[in-house]
Amino acid sequence: MQGPDLEPILAIERVSFPSPWPRSAFELAIAAPDLMSIVACADAVLGYLIGCPDVNDLLIANVAVDPRARREGIGRLLLDEAITRARGLHLAGCKLDVRMSNESAQRLYDRLGFQPRGVRRNYYQHPPEDALHMRLTLD
Ligand SMILES: CC(C)(COP(=O)(O)OP(=O)(O)OC[C@H]1O[C@@H](n2cnc3c(N)ncnc32)[C@H](O)[C@@H]1OP(=O)(O)O)[C@@H](O)C(=O)NCCC(=O)NCCS
User: Fold this and answer.
1) What are the beta bridge partners of residue 115?
2) How do strand 93-99 and strand 115-124 relate by DSSP bridges?
3) Is there an atom of ligand 1 within 6 Å of 19 CB?
4) Tens digit of pLDDT for each residue in 55-104?
5) Using CA positions, which residue lies closest to atom 41 of ligand 1?
6) How many whole angstroms from 7 Cα to the centroid of ligand 1?
7) 75 Cα–ligand 1 center, Å
């Protein structure tokens, strides 16, 4: 992820989430050397993922794909890349939180081997919703 990717990333972010991250959060992700920021590109930016080492795990903090390019394997590609990098960093697992209503994302994580690890009550605002916490144990 680099500076010129910001505008298309923000456009995808705004159509993907009810409470989109602000520009400053992505600028921070680009600047912080310990954060993992990955972009999927063809002629244009098609999706992105931001991961953050958290104790012994990689926390997947954000992942989204351009609505026009969904169901083409890009989300899986981004997660596969993050998991490979987490293994390279000798991390013990990957973890994330997902809205209870977000069945498509949950199915993607399930396909990759993430398992439900609990519910976080009122984790999200705008609109308020519980989160399903999921984790993938790395060998
Ligand atoms: C979740 C998201 C990143 C998935 O990206 P994607 O590129 O469409 O996903 P993929 O094409 O790699 O899908 C991989 C698998 O996930 C599951 N999946 C993904 N989208 C799905 C959907 N809408 N319905 C059912 N299953 C779905 C399927 O099992 C799919 O495999 P298949 O196409 O062979 O059946 C994308 O829908 C998105 O950006 N959503 C909005 C942002 C978001 O919710 N991010 C996650 C926050 S926790």
Assistant:
1) 135
2) unpaired
3) no
4) 999 999 999 999 999 999 999 999 999 999 999 999 999 999 999 999 99
5) 16
6) 22
7) 6
Taking the chain, what is the end-to-end CA distance rounded to the nearest angstrom?
Answer: 27
Of 9, 59, 62, 76, best ligand 1 pocket probe by most atoms within 8 Å of the beta carbon: 76
- Report yes or no: 73 and 65 within 8 Å, Cβ to Cβ: no
Give the pLDDT band (50/70/90) at residue 139: confident
The pLDDT tens digits for 107-131 are 999 999 999 999 999 999 999 999 9
Three-state SS for 70? coil
33-50 residue pLDDT tens: 999 999 999 999 999 999
Strand partners for 99: 131
Task: Give me ligand 1 centre to Cα 3, in Å.
Answer: 26
**C-beta 1 within 6 A of ligand 1:** no
The amino acid at residue 131 is A
Q: Which domains does the chain have, with CATH numbers?
A: 3-137 (3.40.630.30)
**Dist. CA 124 → ligand 1 center (Å):** 20
